[in-house]
Amino acid sequence: MHSIQYQKTCLAGLDAMRAESAQSYPRHTHDQYGIGVMDRGVHASASDGKEVKAGPGNLIFVNPGEVHDGRASGGTSRMWRMLYFDPALMLDAQSDVLEGVERPFDFPAAVAIDPVLQGLFNALFVHATRDSEGDGTPLDAMACEAVLLQLAAHLRQRLVPSQRIAPSGQSIRRAKERIDTDPAAALTLAALADDAGVSRYQLHRNFIRELGFAPHAYILQQRIALARRLIRSGTPLADAALAAGFYDQSHLNRWFLRVFGVSPGTYALSMG
């Protein structure tokens, strides 16, 4: 069985997903924090170069920009739920917990067992996706927000300040910032290398070493992320494809489906 459903929630910047699938996902990144729970089966992935497996009841995590893939262990279908948090939403909740202190963080592991956190995840998932009992009033969002803050407080007990190593060379930093500022721009390896003051080979090699992707693959990931944000904001699919730098809508469809497991059209309907 293959079923992947995205759902708009009562909080801006929070998306929910239910999945039952044996589909494999290629190496990719998300522009959001992701927290999930495995409900059935076993999910295997290579997260930042480390092979991990998650079984029923295990929590799974992904950081923004973290390179990972995913597949069903043994080829059998697995079932899981995810909540995806825009970084601004997650960091705002963390800042609230820390009484105004802004402290970036990464999830320290891709898989964990934590009954308390699992209970908070389940409660937040129910509140965030409630569409039968809730009536869309501010009180629904307030209840969801309250659980989010509890979850953020518990996460802070588990987390340490971000240990992720930022790109060490000014060349990578400049090239990455140029791509991130406008992923849809028509960039060439020569232009990026010239702007960074290194050779094309040095830029290509350093990108792979520091970010896990070659420059062209990193640009594609950023374009997919931009397209998702545009679609979630209500931009028509064809316009979102062109604005994100894809040749046409079919080009976006192909890559969006590989990363998210659903077509852009299906995602748009779920976010409407």
Automatic annotation (TrEMBL):
Record has Transcription as a keyword: yes
Taxonomic superkingdom: Bacteria
Domain HTH araC/xylS-type: residue ranges: 173-270
Single annotated GO MF: DNA-binding transcription factor activity
Keywords from the UniProt entry: Activator, DNA-binding, Transcription, Transcription regulation
Pfam families in the record: AraC_binding (PF02311), HTH_18 (PF12833)
Keyword ATP-binding: no
Matches recorded under PANTHER family: HTH-TYPE TRANSCRIPTIONAL ACTIVATOR RHAS-RELATED (PTHR46796), TRANSCRIPTIONAL REGULATORY PROTEIN (PTHR46796:SF2)
Identification of the protein by name: AraC family transcriptional regulator
Organism, scientific name: Trinickia violacea
